[in-house]
Amino acid sequence: MFKKLLIYLLLNIIASGIANADFDIKARTAILLDYHSGEILFEKDADRKIFPASMTKIMTSIVAFDLIKSGELSLNDKFIVSENAWRLSESGYSSMFIMVGDQISVENLLKGIIISSGNDACVALAEGIAGTEEEFAMLMTEKAIEIGMENTNFSNSSGINSPDNLSTVRDIMLMSKYLIKNYPNFYKYFKEKKFTWDRTGGDPITQGNRNPLLYKNLGADGIKTGYLSYEKYSLASSIDRNGRRLIAVGSGFNSKNARSRESTKLLTYGLTNFDLVHIAKANDPFYKIDIWQGKENYVQSYVKEDIFKTIKKTKKKLLKVSVNYEGPVEAPINKDQKIATLKVVYDQELIGEYDLLSSKEIKKINFVSRIIKSLNYLIWGDV
User: Fold this and answer.
1) In whole angstroms, how far apart are CA 218 and each of 131, 188, 264, 376?
2) Is-catalytic flag, 70?
């Protein structure tokens, strides 16, 4: 027989303004992602080529994090500063203010890159890892391809002027998501508001993080600003509020103030117009499935992955979840065997379908017990 159990999610509908279909921000290109569900909540010319400027440094950091994870690099390793790296501290660019011949730890270089946005620190790290910045840029582009950044090429480690250092806000969003997902411990560097470098030949220098959203009451914890005269101002930002994370990337803001204001507007739009619904938690018991001819009458099912959906606040009542299976399911059942399907429907449209798996093995009852149970079913309809 076919058994379909329809489960309505009990959701409190929160009064809020209707999401404005004409919502826009003053940027040349932008995108907004709900991190857990993977839903794009807003985009504006998101595949337009941009010069990523200092947002490039997110990838510079990721390459180093990968090497630390594999054991090929340590935070305590020290690299000697070349004249090539030092020159960027003397050219009017963002700098950590390192000196030729300094031996600087990887951890300090990373903080100089992430917090102080030091171009000189980028080159020192790149040369220490790959020998030359050009070779390091190749590692960056290889990593971009691995992540799925289809429209990105890195030609240097800092993002300073180069016609071949290109990306899109969609790719920067993918890179930011990868960073947060794979390196939560290192990601903490991105929310630090200041870094003090005990430089050679002078007093310690303290510089503040250039991300303006860190100083607002938004829940921002990253990620990276950028500026080039042609591209104007850019920002990859992320907020984490009450277990919900949003990632926004924008480029082509006309001023620092516009970058801060419009990025805040974009993130606020996501928070106020949409809710994140956690439908199922990975590996947790989800629903009891009836068993036929088994040593147990039911088994708990589970899903392998967290299931999140982002829904407009004014339409959450249109979200429905159903468990579908031919049942009761006949034993024997293996652990992790698919025994049902979880379907997620929003406004009468199927938006997700997931396997429900058995949490344990269920053995079949013996022959005599099967006969008795079958007779009970035939006479009484009792399964």
Assistant:
1) 40, 16, 8, 62
2) no
Choice among 37, 44, 57, 358 that is catalytic: 57
| Dist. CA 244–CA 127, nearest whole Å | 38
What percent of the chain has a predicted confidence (pLDDT) above 70? Answer: 89
pLDDT score at 367: 54
Q: Region 117-126: what's the mean pLDDT?
A: 97
Catalytic residue among 82, 117, 167, 260: 117
Superfamily of domain 29-276: DD-peptidase/beta-lactamase superfamily (3.40.710.10)
Contact call for residues 158 and 54 (beta carbons, < 8 A): yes
Phi, psi of 318 (to 5 degrees): -85, 0
CATH 3.40.710.10 domain residues, the chain: 29-276
Higher-scoring residue by pLDDT: 243, 61: 61
What's the confidence (pLDDT) of residue 112? 97
Q: Where in the chain is the domain with CATH 2.60.410.10?
A: 284-380
The domain 284-380: what is its CATH number? 2.60.410.10
For β-strands 338-346 and 319-326, DSSP reports them as antiparallel
Is 117 marked active-site? yes
- Please tell me the predicted confidence (pLDDT) of residue 376: 61
